[in-house]
Sequence to fold (148 residues):
Amino acid sequence: MNHPPVLEEGVVVVRGRAHGFVQEITAGRHHLVADEPVSAGGTDRGPGPYDLLLAALGSCMSMTIALYARNKAWPLEGVDIRLRHSRIYARDCTDCVVRDDTMLDRIETDIRLSGALTPEQQRKLMEVAHKCPVHRTLKSEISIQEVS
Fold:
């Protein structure tokens, strides 16, 4: 499959064939592959769509934490974030307004910071992580528009 030409920043092109799940992704000058695992009928040539979503969130959170720590000259040495996506019933969600049999997406994050940080610095960095741009986007109402 030919890659589309290099695109301007902020534009992503995804191309796939009618058979299989492999998707060729071009983001600016970067090329990635997405797929589904063999257990879901794919060939496991790349991460699945939800893995990519979690990677986007985790990388944004980590970058935001590191930037904040650098700006404060705090002794952060590293950030390790483990993320997991699942679906739960709304009735099982203690923080949700809706309480019925609808399914909700849940993303769990486990953030580990390394470095000689004070408890207050760690608390602030954890707070900042949940204010990253991708986190704010996922928590907001999103309008997806088709343009022709």
DSSP finds three helices and five strands in the chain. The longest helix spans residues 49-72. The chain has a mean pLDDT of 90. The radius of gyration is 19 Å.
